[in-house]
Amino acid sequence: MRAIGYRKASPELDHLEAFDIPKPSPEGRDLLVEVRAVSVNPVDYKVASGGGPGGAASDAGAIKVVGYDAAGVVVETGREAQLFKPGDEVFYAGSVGRQGANMQFHLVDERIVGRKPCKLDFAAAAALPLTSITAWEAMFDRLDVAKPVPGAARAILILGGAGGVGSIAIQLARQLTDLTIVATASRPETVQWAKDMGAHHVVDHKKALAPQIAALGMGSPGFIFATSPIGGVIADLAELIAPQGRVALINGEAADLFVFRPKSVSIHFELMFTRPLLKTADIEAQHMLLNEVADLVDSGRVRSTMRENYGRIDAANLMRAMAFLKSGRAIGKVVLAGF
Q: Is the pTM of this model over 0.85?
């Protein structure tokens, strides 16, 4: 079967090629999925560059395949599989601890797989899993947004509102909470996108944030979800957040988090690969939340964040998509469909 990968990581992102590798067989609770579409995330180019969660790949000279968003059809199941059967349409993000989904047939643990939304085609569905899991876990598991911060405004500031994670985080917060949603964006097109996703307010992260939040007249927000690096705005964030507020981070950059200490702000890191990598006791939570996202889509409450379709799943298109994401110019998600 065909797979798109590399033998040696490179930050130039010019090293992907097509390989013919054996078709795998599922064991245990694995599913063998015929991949119909994938989307590209920053983790793809970070791992392909030699870093990222899970580290650079494997043994010297071994083929490494990335790709951590997929939608497809189950063709075979392991003997212990309980949640899906052949013919089921699914979507999922996989694990950086295993080969990625940029291949025709892919193995994935069914406990981190959801049913594909019926109202979406495979390309639109592939845009959602990784970012949905990240946003859901950050807001509901880490920040626990259902639990108010005493004296704080029932509001969340989402940094990077037009990115992949920000796009779905805005929608989930709008549909599942009573929070006032303030997103950040700096270009006319990203401001409009964040508003289209459901943000109540959009502020410019290229300007001082604290005065812009104060001007909204709602008080200090209890929650911050930073989907983008905070190094340049950390002082602003420490100023604007409410005492005893809660912050979720997904970026691993070094930052002096000590600035939050005077307000006893709690800091939470979110990595959606934690559950599959460490086989946590609650790993099946990702299956359940993806099914809830599918229900939200099928009920018309949440939309796909797909914005660009780069065509077939091949080396040239994947390298082009990774380079575009790395440029920081992407809005929403970039997908590819078909081999």
A: yes
